[in-house]
Design a protein that fits this description.
44% of the residues lie in helices and 15% in strands. The strands form ten sheets. Strands 20, 21, 24, 25, 26, 27, 28, 29, 30 and 31 form a ten-stranded antiparallel beta sheet that branches. It has a seven-stranded mixed beta sheet with strand order 10-11-15-14-13-17-16, sandwiched between helices. Strands 33-32-36-34-35 form a five-stranded mixed beta sheet. The longest helix has 23 residues. This is C2H2-type domain-containing protein.
Amino acid sequence: MWKCKLCEFSTAVKVRLMSHYRLLHGQHSTICPLACPYHNCMCYFKTYNSLKVHMSRVHDAALQAGRENIGNRRAFKCQLCEFTQPFVERDMFLHLGRHLKQKQIVPCPFKDCSFTSNVYSTFTSHKCREHSNSSDYATELVQPIGSDPPQNFASEEESVAFHEEEPSHEEVYDTDALDDKLEYNLAAFFLKMQSILHVTNRATQEIVEHIDQLFTLSEPILNKVITETLKKHSCPVTDTIVGAVVQAVSECNILHRSVKSKGPLSTAKRRKSYVEQRFPHIKPIEYLIDRTQRKSVYVPVLSSLQELMKKADIADIAFQSTTTNPGEFSSYVDGSYYQSNVFFAEGGAKFSLILYVDDLEIANPLGTSRGYYKMCAVYWSLANLPIKYRSALHTIQLAMLCNSKDVQRFGYDKVFAPLLNDLKILEQDGVYIENLGDSIKGTVFSVVADNLAAHGLGGFNQSFRSVYSCRFCLYSRADVQTLDATIDACQMRSTDQHDALTQEIQENENAGETYGVKGTCVFSDQLSYFHTITGFPPDILHDLLEGVVPVELALCLQGMISLNYFTLQDLNKAIKSFPYQHSDKVDRPHPIPSFSSRGTIGGNGHENHALLRLLPILIGHNIPEGDMFWEILMALKDVVDLAVSHKFTEETLQYMSCKISEHRQILQEVFPNLMLRPKHHFLEHYPHLIRCFGPLVHLWTMRFEGKHRVFKKIIHESNNFKNVLKTCAERHQLMMTYYLSSSRFFKPPVEMSQVKSVFIDTLPSEVQASVSKFTEDSTVLSTNQVNIDGTSFVVGMFVCTGVQNSLPEFKEIINILLLANRITLLLKDYNVWYVEHLRSFELTVNGGNGHVVCCVRQLKDHTPLYAYRVSDRLILTPKHFIPMASPLKLRIVLDDQNAEKLILPSRPETVDDLISEIKTRFELLYDFRLQYEDPDFNNALCNLVSIESLPSIATVKVVHLIDLDLSSISTDDTVILSSPERSCRTEAWPENFTVPSFTYDIEYILSKGNTAYEQEGKTLKLTKDQKHNILEAMAIEMYKYTGYPSGKQFGKAAEALVKKHACLKEKTGTGYDGWKNSLRFKMGNYRTKLSRAGVKDVSVNAGKRSRINPTAASSHSNIKRPRRGEINYLPDYPAGESKESLEAQRNELSREFEKVAAERDGALIFLLMHRTFALRREEIINSSRPIAELRERWPALFCEAQLYKEVHRITNQNLPFSFFASLDRYTPHLLNLYKQKQSGTFGQKMVGLLSDYSKQDKNNVQAARTAVLFGLALYLKEDTSEVFRSCKEADFDKHQKGAVVLLAVTEENASAVPFSPQHVTIILEDQVVLSHRYWADALVILFGLIYALHLEYPEKLKGFFEFIQIVLLNLDDGRRQIKPKLLSLKNELELSV
């Protein structure tokens, strides 16, 4: 089955999927690229043609080659390097071309040809002249490699679809909706031209008019062609007929019909109207500031939030809860300002906004129009989104544009009035979010701006030469020069103190400035939960990268030049000629023209950062150790590396304070007369402010300033200065409209565009075994570059994998492999040495030349780096500080016999990350949860829920998890809820589904329709309401049996419907496929309504969708529903009961079990167990309590009689009766099948089993049952050693460990089949829970416990237990796909009886 990766569409034919791509996802762009449809290929493409080329070259060609060349596979092995890969002619010549471009001598690859060359053009000319049609290559280059087919990226279903013919248009498209969709796509194309490609309205209109003219002028040609075609086919030809056909053909042309005169897209006004009506467009609004007709343009924030939350990928992550380690600062939510904010502390879903205010110059800032078109821009970003999404420019929204002079003239309160009004509404009333079905409140968390704007907005003095120039503390200008805020006592501004100052200023008009405060903050005045002191974070970009860094670079570089270490020309030459790689190319610094009189080198922030970071590599070798100018720059580099880090601990912040203080001390020693700038002082507050705001790099202005380029480009391309504010706002909103109308708002988390196959045996020997675990093929997929969450990982780059000997471990990316649909890095080991003089690391090749494979999430740091070679030394300098955290040492108990040691360089962020790490390290292919020995409870095992609970040295146990079905739930809001009559179901899904009676009007219509169908064969066309009523009644009837019907059950219901009412039969397929799909969606809707009413077996999944609980997981994760034919999976509480009343009855039940067995009231126990059934199922389904805890809370559940009653409540079956009745019926035939099983390892075991059974009494029913059940596992070739065990009484204690064990105690050989055991004990999670005299009866009890406790079948005996469930007990809802061998056995048994 081919599935679209951008929506829920699926089809059996690849051509249909490609047509779906063109029709519904034609708006592909860099934000929403086209995904390769092959399920195990992670490539994305910006154009449809690129996707087609990729599929042709990589998938279709590989698949065809695999079919044609089985037994004749070849590999290309380069003689000039160690490169080896499956032979593809194009790839071979591309590889040889790389050697030629490096001027290496390359021999001709063709057989018996002695030609060599190191010139690319000469080599290609020789190939064309001498070997144009040859494919006979030298055997030393192209060698045969065996008979396994190459990996072709296709599953069996995909392979089947390879040769299918393209279906007709009627099959591919719904022609009724096609016309409208094509018109929509054309409008989207015009929208892209204007908003993304920046084509002006005038140019677009000219294009439209020329297209219309071309169609008009081509009508005679069309008339002629149609006339000739009609004559050719002997059709009557008249002017009327020809004219009508020409008219019809013209009307079918969407492009012509849309752009012709009075067409919906024929003019700019019509196109604009179309976009506003059909697209998610938020229109900018012009506001008059005052009566002078001065205007501002405002984009409503509330409307923008509503449109954003309509995007599923935004709504799914906007309110996801994040977990962080105590004492760690990795997000703004870790900061004290967020946590102390009363608004956010209330809990629940809340919008957290980050505003950005800045002035930008649209015209040339050095020209005659300087300042005339300077405008103030207000952007905002949704802080609820993870930082990896917030950094994308299109996620930064426009709020307001106004003239900068108007802000100075009228003040922020008047100019920002529309914005402030919306923010006030958001804070007090909230905004209704359709997807969530509720109003969500929000407020501004912080306002990001440069220092000048922050002081102006906050009501502080905007002169940084005044006495009090710091908005964070009360240091005076003199204190800044003499006191170090990281060491000396510093009085920080507080909210209460600031409120008192502003009140004093308001009461006294002549007060002027008080401690740097001139007035109130416009945001603080209007918003109840925003405060000036807690709302304006510092900005790394302006404080450091465009403030302190360029100033100190100028000072120190001049000092080193004066000492003749190098000249300015030498430095500029090094900057120009340096071989920048990867992201360093984008940030490469410009040469320094001269040191200005202002004492700074100037430059942009990203260029200054790159220059400071790469300066040790550029000129470090010229500087003698101990030089003080150099030490200042290296100390500054340390500070910058710390400031731009994304994660901090208290230890890191203390280290940062020391580094800032050290930098200040050295600077003042070398330059005693230097007047420190206010930005030097702001820097000293950074450790404290990180504790308050979280990582400051998440709140800097660099990404917001990148948004300015959008407006500058709009004006540059449109060349329209008539109404700059309106032009910029409208064009920006058209761009946002285009992005919001795309299938996906965010880029895919993993992107790549080129993949190829590599042989596993060509990989380093150390990793071949690990890689082979993930595939049975001889090849794996690889790529040279992958983009993960916006970060590019490229072969040749270095990544930090951990910490060893207090130094980070850096490894080189040798290859990037795709294993089990996840990115795995093949890494090469290096020795790491810290070079303090360069504040960088020197890398040397590990003598052992070791290699490892590593998932990206396992990396210590997720920023890949490039190492540069300097004087035969490989030097790597990080982009930010890498913390050296203490390792986590764990003893991992995998099972009773295996325990492994695991040392992690740092504590994983979540429990899921630890589980992923354990899966990878120990190559575990199953799902599990973790328990750990808790020192607070004498090392008793407890479930690991929070990663913070895990000690640094701990024992962790792996416990198998239940494999849940993750099918999605569809919703629809049109159904009417019906109330279930009782909390428990009493019937399973019937063999023949009974169609319910519908309302009188529907029954009347169907009766007439059935009569017409019998007489004329005419089907009935229903209105929307009529179909809705039928589906509603069907959904209510289906829910009587199950809340989650399987595909098979949907089909049975749909088939019964059209069988009873033949007039509803469809003309294609089975006649009821459409009804089946409609029932599926309607049932999803009915579940939603029941969920809102609180019905438990569906409301247990209600929190998945953000509409019900926006802070929960996505809607497709961990769906809880029946999967083993349970009738009562999660029933509602009995009428009149609550959780508290049922808990009281549970306590009464426990007290009854504290009595001796003879004194217990059996009738009372049964009654209490029946009443508390719903509470018990709720606990078992929704929690992962250990067995020991369940035994303590529900002791009756571990009694045989009560267990059988519990299974009856769940399945409506008498377990022992049904089990043994079916088993005894099939026993003769099964024994005959066993006798035919004589070969192989399992066959030999079967011979021994039958031999032992022949020695038993033939009238012994227990012996026959034991033989049949033991033989069943052998027949299915399943390993029984872990579950079915035998021992002697003396060895009983040695075998009491295991997740699921049936332990038979015998007097004879412990390895024999226990036909006559002394007793059989059932063990769950190392707990002895029950015993029985006979082995078969004990197995029935074990099966009942698995059902009652909702346990997973033992991994190695899944087929055995599925046989019991599906064949013996007939507990099959059609959802589980039966294995072929089990299905064959089931069919054979059914035929035999």
